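ok new one. same drill as before - structure tokens go in, u give me an amino acid for every spot. 101 of them this time. try not to just spam alanines like last time pls lmao
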């Protein structure tokens, strides 16, 4: 398993195919907080907005990471969470898991 560092995350977190926003990475006590937004497509293939989420990675046990969708208390973002979070959760988790292996 790869040693987790900010440099490793900056160069290996997914980009493109929905991961269309820049990753914001911070680290404190070997806990990495990685924030970005998923670019959602609706059922007709048109962009539908950005769904913010956070991945929290423990540098000592990276495979046990946590994924949280961020509400931001904005009605439109809440509607995106309701519409897409169940569909996207598994895909995002698998993509992050693949990157960490």
């Amino acid at each position: 398993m790869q040693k987790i560092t900010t440099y490793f995350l900056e160069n290996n977190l997914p980009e493109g195919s929905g991961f269309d926003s820049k990753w914001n990475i911070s680290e404190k006590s070997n806990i990495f907080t990685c924030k970005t937004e998923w670019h959602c497509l609706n059922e007709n293939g048109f962009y539908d907005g950005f769904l913010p989420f956070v991945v929290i990675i423990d540098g000592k046990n990276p495979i046990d990471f946590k994924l949280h969708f961020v509400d931001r208390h904005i009605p439109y973002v809440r509607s995106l969470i309701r519409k897409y979070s169940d569909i996207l959760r598994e895909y995002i988790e698998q993509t992050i898991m693949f990157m960490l292996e």
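Residues 6-100 form one domain. and btw The chain is about 35% helix and 30% strand.
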